[in-house]
Amino acid sequence: MKYNKIGKTGMVVSSLSFGASSLGGVFRDINQASAIKAVETAIEGGMNFIDVSPYYGHYKAETVLGKALKGIDRSKYYLSTKVGRYGKDGVNTWDYSAKRATESVFESMERIGVDYIDLINVHDIEFADLNQVVNETLPALVELREKGVVGHVGITDLQLENLKWVIDRVPEGTVESVLNFCHYTLNDDKLLDFLDYFEQHGIGVINASPLSMGLLSNRGVPDWHPAPKSLVDACRKAVEHCNAKGYPIEKLAIQFSTGNPRIATTLFSSANPDNVANNIAFVDEPIDMTLVEEVRDIIGNQQRVSWANS
Which intervals hold domain NADP-dependent oxidoreductase (predicted)? Predict the structure, then answer.
């Protein structure tokens, strides 16, 4: 496992890290015992960064994660969670007010069973009034940082332009990291266009969804996936090509997304301990760059545009 720094935070994290959304049953029903074992497997395998949110499973993911972390030394992992997106009884809710953000941090610590959060993020700012994020949400989190309740402050979003918009409008050092997903994968590398900007501001970069929400997997995409049919079909051909080579596309995708040292870490999520162990093993193996180019050719340059911006 390789380790990289998240900007100027001082956190040195594994290139592959654990996204806990699956613990909330976001993708499918889970076995809680297996989910807890998945977290343990991640830590044992050298993954030292865990990301969660009260939104995942409408608080369930944080609760299950708390059970998993109960017997694990706090010094073995960095913990990241979020504010802004919530839900109850199957209904999603959003609240980016300073009051709710502050309350949410303490609620998350109670659910997870910790007294300190290493990184607190404003979750999916595309759903917020960006001016409120600038003038209310982030100042509330900075206040918690100054009080020592949280270590560092970040923002997350699918739209890279939104991340830049907010960073341009807050005091330097307010935002210490960004979390972006589906933009550094075999089929979409738009994140590269923004790395210079983030680095100029001393901001660490966290990548997520190396399988592009199922596009780069044998399982395939869920019905709600936003990719156009042409891209889904192209990725399916790439999957079949990798299978014919005896090299699962999941392995190639994980290796590709974790291979850029300018990106601190890449999050993936699984409640299956065997999947966690396999992905850790993938990172330690050399990548087949010839196959990378073959896959990218199959998907096609015209298909690698940032479909997720639509």
Answer: 16-297
Give one DSSP letter per residue of 68-92, joined into a string.
Answer: HHTTS-GGG-EEEEEESEEEETTEE
**Per-residue DSSP letter, 216:** T
- Stretch 2-8: mean pLDDT: 98
Is the pLDDT at 308 greater than 50? The verdict is no
Give mean pLDDT, residues 9-31: 90
Is the pLDDT at 25 greater than 90, yes or no?
no
Task: Say how far apart CA 231 and CA 81 lie, in whole Å.
Answer: 32
Residues near 149 by beta carbon (within 8 Å), at least 6 away in sequence: 105, 106, 116, 117
Q: What is the CA radius of gyration of the chain?
A: 18
CA distance 83 to 147: 17
Tokens at 240, concatenated: 């079949």
59 classed as catalytic: no
Enclosing domain of residue 61: 3-215+250-286
pLDDT at 305 > cutoff 50:
no
Distance CA 210, CA 15 (A): 12
Residue 234 placed within a domain: no
Catalytic residue among 3, 55, 56, 78: 56
255: CATH: 3.20.20.100
